[in-house]
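Severity: low
Component: inverse-folding endpoint
Summary: output formatting inconsistent between runs
Steps to reproduce: submit the following structure tokens with default settings.
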């Protein structure tokens, strides 16, 4: 059970005054998030223009490892980042400063090929499941590589519907006997609901400006470390996270 910090995601400049879009800002927020209680970091590297970029992974991971030695660091492989399947795979294959794991969205057509590539180069796979159909696809993959973790990431913001989807995904995994660590998180309106649900289920969770900008009681947060501290207070009220 951990709290992961997701510090920027695909959020645009202007989403929050302290959204980290440069390497220096990501390092700053990564360090602050770890100090606030985050056990891992999930980052969307950006190029010099602030655009998400898989080619920027090397410089970002290198700087982050210098600042946070020993901390597990993951990145996204979202198809929208390079907007071309062949380019996505070429960028990943060219990584020299490899992350510990990378998330792969099972809703994306090229997910099986991206997963196979990550497995070949020794990068852990976070299987991202946003729907029950995603979970069924994962289970049905004929040559599914070993998974670092299952990421249940619910985009539906109606709490009742979101719970139904999360429960349905968990049931598909259970029925298939797929036993891997699970990290559950929501977006915007459901962020804190799923932090609490993850604690109840003894799953991991994540918070950060990728997922939402408000604190549990409603006000705008000051940034990633503020969100992490609030999640840790819910997730491990006695200061204990394992």
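Observed output (run 2 of 3):
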């Amino acid at each position: 059970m951990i709290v992961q910090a997701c510090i920027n995601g695909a959020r645009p400049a202007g989403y929050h005054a302290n959204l980290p879009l440069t390497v220096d800002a990501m390092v700053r927020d990564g360090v602050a998030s770890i100090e606030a209680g985050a056990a891992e970091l999930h980052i969307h590297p950006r190029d010099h223009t602030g655009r998400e970029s898989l080619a920027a992974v090397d410089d970002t991971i290198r700087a982050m490892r210098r600042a946070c030695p020993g901390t597990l660091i993951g990145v996204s492989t979202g198809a929208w980042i390079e907007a071309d399947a062949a380019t996505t795979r070429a960028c990943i294959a060219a990584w020299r400063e490899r992350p510990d794991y990378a998330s792969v969205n099972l809703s994306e057509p090229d997910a099986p090929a991206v997963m196979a590539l990550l497995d070949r180069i020794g990068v852990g796979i976070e299987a991202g499941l946003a729907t029950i159909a995603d979970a069924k696809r994962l289970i049905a993959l004929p040559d599914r590589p070993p998974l670092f973790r299952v990421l249940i990431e619910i985009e539906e913001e109606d709490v009742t519907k979101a719970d139904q989807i999360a429960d349905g995904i968990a049931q598909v995994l259970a029925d298939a006997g797929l036993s891997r660590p699970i990290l559950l998180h929501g977006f915007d309106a459901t962020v804190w609901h799923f932090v609490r649900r993850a604690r109840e289920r003894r799953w991991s969770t994540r918070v950060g400006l990728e997922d939402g900008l408000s604190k549990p009681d409603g006000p705008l947060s000051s940034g990633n470390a503020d969100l992490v501290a609030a999640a840790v207070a819910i997730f491990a009220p006695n200061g204990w996270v394992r």
